[in-house]
Design goal:
Elements: H1 4-16, H2 19-26, H3 30-44, E1 49-51, E2 56-58, H4 60-87, E3 92-98, H5 106-117, E4 121-127, H6 130-139, E5 144-147, E6 156-164, E7 166-171, E8 181-182, E9 191-195, H7 201-213, E10 219-224, H8 227-235, E11 241-244, E12 255-260, E13 267-274, H9 280-299
Parallel strand pairs: 3-4, 3-5, 8-12, 9-10
Antiparallel strand pairs: 1-2, 5-13, 6-13, 7-11, 7-12
Length: 300
Amino acid sequence: MIGTKQLRYFQAVAEELHFGRAAGRLYIAQPALSRQIQQLEAEVGTKLFNRTQRHVELTPAGILLLERTNRILEEIGHAALDARRLGSGESGHLTVGFIHSSTYGLLPSIIERFRHLYPDIELDLREMSINAQIVALTQGTIDIGLLRPQLAPPEIEIQAIMDDHFLLAVPYKHALSNLTGTYLHAVNNEPMIMFAKNESPMFHARITAMCEKADITPCIVQKATQIHTIVGLVGAGMGVAIVPGIAQNLRPRNVHFLEILDKPKPVQVGLAWQKGKETPTARSFHHVTLLVLQQLNQQE
C-alpha cells in the first residue's frame, strides 16, 4: 500500500527533477531515496520518471501522480490542522443553554467575545429554564449551560461564576426614590409584585425567606415569572419588588433601584456541564466567560 512517506519522497523528486537535490531536501541518502521511488513505481505498476545520468523527467503517469499527490498531501495537511483545532476547541459545534435573564448583559458580552476569538465554532443558543438545562445536560442535548446554581444530579458539575445581589425596585415617584439604600422594613405592608412560586421557585423562596427574616409582611398584588415583567409592573406604579441586581441592566423607565441594607445573600450565576464530558468547545466557552467577567469586574 502506498504511504504518505512515499508520496512525499515522490513529490520532492518530481519538483526537483534531481535525486541528489531531493535527497538533500529530505535529509536522506540518495540510494535510499532511489529505492523508495523504485518501490513506488513497482506498486503503481508503471514508470514515473525517465532517468539518464544527466537528466530526470516525469513520465505522463508521473505527471498525473504528482497532480494527485499534491492534492492528497494538501488535504492531509488540512485534515490534521482541522483535527488539531477541533481537539483544542478552536473549531466545531457548541450548543449552549441559557436563562432569559442572562441576555440582560452577560450573555451578549460573552457571545460577542466568543465569536471574535473562535469564529470557526458554530454556536447553537437555546433559551431554557434552569431545570430544562439540567435535563438537557444529563441527556447530552446541550454542551454547557448558563444558569443559576441549584441542586443537580451528581453527574452535573456547576461552577458559580458571579454573585447577583438583590435590590429593591420602587416606582420613580415612591417616597423612597430619593434614597440609594433602605432596610426592608421600610416597605412593610406595601403592595408588592412577587415572583410566581411554580414558575420561579428559587426567587420566590429566597424573597419569601428574606421578608420573614426582616419581619415584614408583603402585600402581594401581582405575581409574574420574568424579571423584566416584574420591573415593568413596578414602573407602572403597581407596587414595589425585590429583584436580582441584573434587572438594572434593563434601564427601565420610572423605576428606581435601592440597595437592600439588610444584606440578603445574593443569588448566583453559574456554568454547568456533564462531569468528565466537557467538550473542547465548551472549555473554550468556559474560558471566554471567565475572561469577560474579569473585564466586567475591572470596569466597575
